Known about the structure:
Layout: H1 15-45, E1 51-55, E2 62-64, E3 69-73, H2 81-93, H3 102-111, H4 115-140
Parallel strand pairs: 1-3
Antiparallel strand pairs: 2-3
Helix pairs in contact: 1-2, 1-4, 2-3, 2-4
Amino acid sequence: xxxxxxxxxxxxxxxxxxxxxxxxxxxxxxxxxxxxxxxxxxxxxxxxxxxxxxxxxxxxxxxxxxxxxxxxxxxxxxxxxxxxxxxxxxxxxxxxxxxxxxxxxxxxxxxxxxxxxxxxxxxxxxxxxxxxxxxxxxxxx
Length: 141
């Protein structure tokens, strides 16, 4: 994660500018990394979305539409690589099963055998990550 400190004396002179610059940098880097992971895992699983995009969501790590579009939460970038991989595989599997049936979970497990460990991390991480980003938004107000 490269944060452009060369701008510190001019652009980042106050805390709100620092927070804004951090969020901009975070969004850029998270989208770069998550895009490469979606492409890698789509090739690996042979489950290819029609398109994918990114949002800052407070309650979901990702979603898949019936039109084959994935939406991923940029905050995934704060998680471990294995948890990121699980969320992307979970959403890619929805391309084949747009539900949480046994067939869906069998497909998830086929591509991510340790998915239950990652689910535990997701449940424990959301509050910490949302708290951190909440502090950032208060600093930039």
